[in-house]
Amino acid sequence: MRLKLQNFHWRKSHVILGFLLAVVFTLSFSAQAADETQSTAPPVVVGVISFQAMIPNEGPGSTVICPLCTTAYSTGKILKGAEKTVENIFTDKLREFKEVQIIPQERVQSVYKRTVSESLKKPLLEVLKNVGHELKADVLAVGYIYRYEERVGYDYSTERPASVAFEIYMINPAEGDIIWRGVFDKTQKSLMEDLFQISSFFKGRGRWLTAQQLSKQGMDEIFKKFPGFTR
After folding, report:
1. Which residues pair with 149 in a beta bridge?
2. Are 57 and 33 in a shared domain?
3. In terms of residue numbers, what domain contains 24?
4. Do 87 and 112 share a domain, yes or no?
5. 44-95: per-residue pLDDT in tens?
6. How far apart (Å, rounded) are the C-alpha atoms in residues 61 and 198?
7. pLDDT digits (tens, 9 = 90+) for 161-197
8. Could you write out the three-class secondary structure of 196-228?
9. Is 115 in the same domain as 138?
C-alpha cells in the first residue's frame, strides 16, 4: 500500500512539474516571439527641423504669428541659444521611444533650407511635405520658442522666476497634415502665489527652477498627452 502511495505521489509530482515546465516554455516562446516582432518592425523615422526663436521686429511683448497655425502669440524675451536648448530637450524625449529613428540633424537642415529656398511662395505645410518626402521621414517635428527668460536668483531665493513658452508640432509628410501639437507656457510662481502649482512645486523639490529645468518639466507635461507613434 505504501509503495502504491509513493508511486502515486511520484506520478503526481511529475505531472505537476511537466505542466509547470510547459507553462514556462510557452511564456518564454511568447516573449521571444514578441521581441522578434518588435525587432523586425520597421522604425518610425523622424526628422527634427531646427527650432525657431520667434522674435518680432518690434521687440519683446509684441505679437508674432505661428507659421503653421497662424495663431497670434504675445512674445517675451528669448535668451540667445534658447531654441537649441529646447530642441535638444525634445530630441532627448524622442529617444525614449525605442521605435524611433532620428534622422541626422545636418541632413534634415540641408534638405529643409534648400526646399524652402526653392518654394518661397508655397504654404509651409506643403514645403514640409516635400522635405519629408525627400528625407523618407514618417514624421517631421518643428518647434517655436515664444519666451525664454532665465531666473534671477538662486534655487531657494529669486528676484525673478524663469518663464518659458514654446510650441511643438509633429507633421505627417505623406498627408501634409498636423498629427500632434504640444504647447507649454509657464512662469514659475511660489506655492503661496498659486496653490494650483502644488504638483510642479514638489516635482521641482520646492526650488526655483532655471529656464532649462522649467523647459524639461514642460516637455514632460506636454508628452503626457502624446498618443505615441503609430503607422
Report:
1. 163
2. no
3. 1-41
4. yes
5. 999 999 999 998 776 666 788 888 888 888 888 999 999 999 999 999 999 9
6. 28
7. 999 999 999 999 999 999 999 999 998 876 555 455 5
8. HHHHHHHHCCCCCCCHHHHHHHHHHHHHCCCCC
9. yes
- 64 is a domain residue: yes
DSSP category for residue 119: -
Q: Report the C-alpha dihedral over residues 211, 217, 218, 221, rounded to 10 degrees.
A: 180
The total number of structural domains that make up the chain: 2
Whether 85 is covered by a domain: the verdict is yes
Instruction: Return d(Cα 101, Cα 137) in angstroms, integer.
Output: 9
The C-alpha atoms of residue 91 and residue 177 are separated, in whole angstroms, by: 21
| Identity of the amino acid at 170 | M
Q: Are residues 122 and 8 in the same domain?
A: no
End-to-end CA distance of the chain: 66
Cell of 163: 518663464
Q: pTM to 2 decimals?
A: 0.76
Rounded CA separation 209/207 (Å) = 6
